[in-house]
UniProtKB/TrEMBL annotation:
Catalytic activity: oxaloacetate + acetyl-CoA + H2O = citrate + CoA + H(+)
Organism field: Aciduliprofundum boonei (strain DSM 19572 / T469)
Name of the top EC class for this enzyme: transferase
Keyword Acyltransferase annotated: yes
Name of protein: Citrate synthase
PROSITE patterns recorded: CITRATE_SYNTHASE
Keyword Acyltransferase attached: yes
Family: Belongs to the citrate synthase family.
The EC number(s) this enzyme carries: 2.3.3.16
Length: 385
């Protein structure tokens, strides 16, 4: 039979490393020098001057908005934060134990059924669907958290920014300006990152000409894993397990000896310090001092020094997930919501890539190189042993 086996050299990249699968003008990563730009603008500038709403506009529409355009876009986001009553009723009835990332899938799938633009595939209709999802994910997360902890849900406040409103819906009190701003910056830093696993998952689904909700559901499923967005929650678990800075050395060296991964380190593209982690570390430091609670930051810094000493030459440095958890912890965000918060921020990057790719679509369909047997005879069931 042999015909099924391919001959000659093959090109194979495990995990698609280095494979260029799309052309994009949304963001670029310089993994050697630790640089990241959104639509050409360095993230340091966005973290300093922009807001999540403005960055979302930039990513979706390709340019910074004018004052009027930003006002219109922000107003639309605020208006769309309210989730359908049926979805609210469903969320508050969901069991309290599943991981909130699984809840997010249920809530997003459910809300898609009530989307007034569900049947629309014109650009305006798709954009409204996208903005609706970006606006509603925070409401879904906050409602679920309030309900599972036996508290009344807090409806969104149209007076508040995207970041401040999430903290308000979660805690039932308006955050101070500084905390809202730090959270806003964290959302900006998580908004987009090229063809990471979850974005690619969204693009694969969308490339079949499925709908945007299905694409973002694929993305949420991919983000949940500990090698991707699920790492942030595990970083805090590790810091707790270690307990104090003087125990970090033994913990890390043991983990490396046993070939276990240290969460929040390493990256497929960055072979140096992740620029997002640099900014988040500054805020983790700042909040640790502000609250006079340096336990986590000190363990974190000790781990960072050991990891860079041991694996820096291999290009292993802190990634975005290493210090984000410390920041979130000080903002009162429960640990199992760290990854959902990542999802609500990244929803804009997912949507931007889906829109960009499908505008000039071709279905994703890679191949596997067959390494199984050439020919196996079919044995009748009664003769099998
Ligand atoms: N701890 C210990 N060793 C590591 C780590 C780590 N965190 N990351 C990579 N390595 C080692 C790995 O063992 C391998 O060593 P060797 O060549 O001796 O076998 C080498 O570095 C290359 O690793 P890889 O798995 O081939 O790298 P990758 O590009 O396939 O994986 C990664 C990238 C992010 C999945 C990986 O670095 C990792 O598992 N990190 C921990 C989980 C994590 O923090 N994920 C968040 C990623 S950034 C934000 C996001 O995407 O959500």
């Amino acid at each position: 039979m042999g015909v099924l086996k391919e001959k000659g050299p093959i090109e194979y990249s495990k995990g698609l490393e280095g494979v260029i699968a799309a052309l994009s003008s949304i963001s670029a990563i310089d993994g050697k020098n630790g640089k990241l730009i959104y639509r050409g603008i360095p993230i340091e500038m966005l973290a300093k001057y922009s807001t999540y709403e403005e960055t979302a506009y930039l990513l979706l529409y390709g340019e910074l908005p004018t004052k009027e355009a930003l006002e219109k876009f922000s107003a639309q986001m605020r208006e769309l934060r309210v989730i359908p009553k049926k979805v609210e009723e469903c969320i508050v009835e969901l069991p309290p134990n599943p991981h909130p990332m699984d809840i997010l899938k249920v809530a997003l799938a459910h809300s898609a059924l009530y989307d007034p633009d569900r049947q629309k595939c014109c650009r305006e209709g798709v954009m409204r669907k996208v903005i609706r999802i970006i606006a509603q994910l925070p409401t879904m997360i906050a409602y679920y958290h309030r309900a599972r902890t036996g508290q009344e849900v807090i409806p969104p406040d149209p007076e508040l920014s995207h970041a401040a409103n999430f903290l308000y819906m979660l805690h039932g009190k308006k955050p101070d300006e500084e905390e809202a701003r730090i959270f806003d910056i964290a959302l900006i830093l998580h908004a987009e990152h090229g063809l990471n696993a979850s974005t690619f998952a969204a693009m694969v689904t969308a490339s079949t000409l499925s709908d945007i909700n299905s694409a973002l559901l694929s993305a949420i499923g991919a983000l949940k894993g500990p090698l991707h967005g699920g790492a942030n929650e595990r970083v805090l678990k590790m810091l707790d397990e270690i307990g104090s800075p003087d125990k970090a050395e033994e913990y890390v060296l043991n983990a490396l000896k046993e070939k276990r991964r240290i969460m929040g380190f390493g990256h497929r593209v960055y072979k140096t310090y992740d620029p997002r982690a640099k900014i988040l570390k500054e805020y983790a430091e700042y909040l640790s001092d502000k609250y006079n609670d340096r336990k986590y930051i000190e363990i974190g810094e000790r781990i960072e020094n050991i990891m860079i000493r041991e694996l820096g030459k291999k290009g292993i440095f802190p990634n975005v997930d290493f210090y984000s958890g410390i920041v979130y912890q000080f903002l009162g965000i429960p640990r199992d919501l760290f990854t959902p918060v990542f999802a609500m921020a990244r929803s804009v990057g997912w949507a931007a890539h889906v829109c960009e790719y499908t505008a000039n679509n071709r279905i994703f369909r890679p191949r596997a190189y067959y390494i199984g047997p050439d020919y196996v005879e079919y044995v009748q069931l009664e003769k099998r042993r």
